[in-house]
Amino acid sequence: MTEQDLNERDDSRYDVVVVGGGAAGLSAALVLGRARHRTLVVDAGEPRNAPSAHMQGYLSRDGMPPAEFLALGREEIARYGVELVRDRVTDVARAGDFTVTLERGGRVRARRIIVATGLKDEMPDVAGVAERFGRDVLHCPFCHGWEVRDEPFGVLASSAAGVHQALMVSRWSKDVMFFLHRVAEEELTDLDLRRLAAAGVDVVPGEVAGLVVEDDRLTGVRMADGTVHSRSVVFAAPRPVPQTGLLERLGAEMDETPFGTYPVVDGNGLTSVPGVWAAGNAIGFTEQVVHAASGGYRAATAIVGDLRMADLDAALDG
């Protein structure tokens, strides 16, 4: 793995700067390095899945710790001369090439940019939820359902849309309680209630005060009235906070969704800003690791073609 201090290299010029060193950014960098493009990855070291002990559902990497996955990725890109710096991009401006400003004071230039800055999960403000996230407080049954199958589940509602999560997780356990928390029972439709009943999900009205943890293990959900329901797993819906500030400053067209505001991109991740691509959770809430890696790959192959045609056209004009 190559890590460089760029503070003294303001005139450095790269074909591509990849902002973000998660699955999407590293996958893109691997393709670009193999295509012989001078590439820099700027990574702040804040992956979304850091709280999780393992990642699942990625063929041949099922069960691998996320940190190990990223470490292997960094080793792979280094084989092809890709550089990586531990830093944060604070600004990107364009005057011909892009000028990328780093938090530590360095600046580099790039012909093309990939934004793979991901998102942050803000957990519900219930005592114990944020502290247990990624352990026995979970949000995705596809990521963790198998590992906790058949245990007593709780589902903490953030809105009436939590019904969907409760119905989905009932695939992995027949013992599911849906805690309405601050959602009024009247907000649930008749169809919601009938589906919950068909799935065997118990609806628990009333506000949740916090989680009960004993010997560093979740054992229950405590209600505001003091009642405790024995549970060993709680599913909760985080509020996604996309890290798209760079794209907004570049003037990228954005789209508001129920899960946050994300850039409008084509099938390869190209934004409305010429020369700027986006991949991974920077383009959507549901991009799992396998999707992020695929998105980075697609963006990189598109950039290789884009740069090749630009170079050939410049040669013709010259």
From TrEMBL:
It catalyses: [thioredoxin]-dithiol + NADP(+) = [thioredoxin]-disulfide + NADPH + H(+). Residues 14-294 form the FAD/NAD(P)-binding domain. Keywords: Flavoprotein, Oxidoreductase. It comes from the Bacteria. SUPFAM superfamilies: FAD/NAD(P)-binding domain. Gene3D superfamilies: FAD/NAD(P)-binding domain. It holds the Pfam family Pyr_redox_2. This is NAD(P)/FAD-dependent oxidoreductase. It comes from Streptomyces thermocarboxydus. The lineage of its organism: Bacteria, Bacillati, Actinomycetota, Actinomycetes, Kitasatosporales.
